[in-house]
């Protein structure tokens, strides 16, 4: 499997975790030292991986159980050695987000190292 395919699979695991409110999938997609930061309508939010996975799992019933529309688009993916920058557009919690992910490849596995998010609409 190519690096790009591995990164796309990691993004799929991340998004499934969001849609299913599954903290285990979120932790699978992110590096243990990951930081998640960005702006929601109420202001800046900054979280470590544990805080973000708790936020995702607290969304009950899950977006999937509520029948929320699922939408995920990879806008760009630039791989340089064992690092990558990926930008996606996703539907989550009734909003459209633009996420900018930095990826690191450690022990031959790609994981999200940082997530910067912006609410598009």
General description of the model:
This protein is α+β, with helices and mostly antiparallel strands and 121 residues long. It has a single domain (3-119), classed as Nuclear Transport Factor 2, Chain: A, CATH 3.10.450. 31% of the residues lie in helices and 49% in strands. It has helices at 3-20, 23-29, 49-57, 63-66; strands spanning 30-40, 43-48, 72-80, 83-92, 95-106, 109-119. A 6-stranded mixed β-sheet has the order 2-1-6-5-4-3. Strand 1 and strand 2 form a beta hairpin. Helix 1 runs antiparallel to helix 2 (23-29) and helix 2 (23-29) runs antiparallel to helix 3 (49-57). It starts with a helix and ends with a strand.
Could you list some keywords that capture this structure?
121 residues; globular; Nuclear Transport Factor 2, Chain: A; six-stranded mixed β-sheet; alpha+beta; 4 helices; 49% strand
Quick structural summary:
With 121 residues, the protein is α+β, with helices and mostly antiparallel strands.
How would the blueprint of this fold be written?
Layout: H1 3-20, H2 23-29, E1 30-40, E2 43-48, H3 49-57, H4 63-66, E3 72-80, E4 83-92, E5 95-106, E6 109-119
């Amino acid at each position: 499997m190519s690096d790009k395919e591995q990164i796309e699979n990691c993004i799929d695991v991340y998004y499934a975790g969001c849609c299913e409110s599954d903290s285990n999938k979120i932790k699978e997609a992110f590096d243990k030292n990951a930081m998640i930061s960005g702006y929601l309508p109420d202001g800046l939010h900054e979280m470590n991986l544990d805080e973000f996975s708790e936020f995702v799992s607290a969304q009950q019933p899950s977006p999937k159980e509520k029948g929320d529309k699922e939408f995920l688009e990879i806008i760009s993916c630039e791989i340089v050695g064992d690092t990558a920058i990926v930008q996606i557009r996703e539907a989550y919690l009734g909003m459209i987000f633009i996420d900018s992910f930095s990826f690191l490849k450690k022990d031959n596995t790609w994981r999200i190292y940082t997530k910067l998010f912006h609410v598009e609409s």
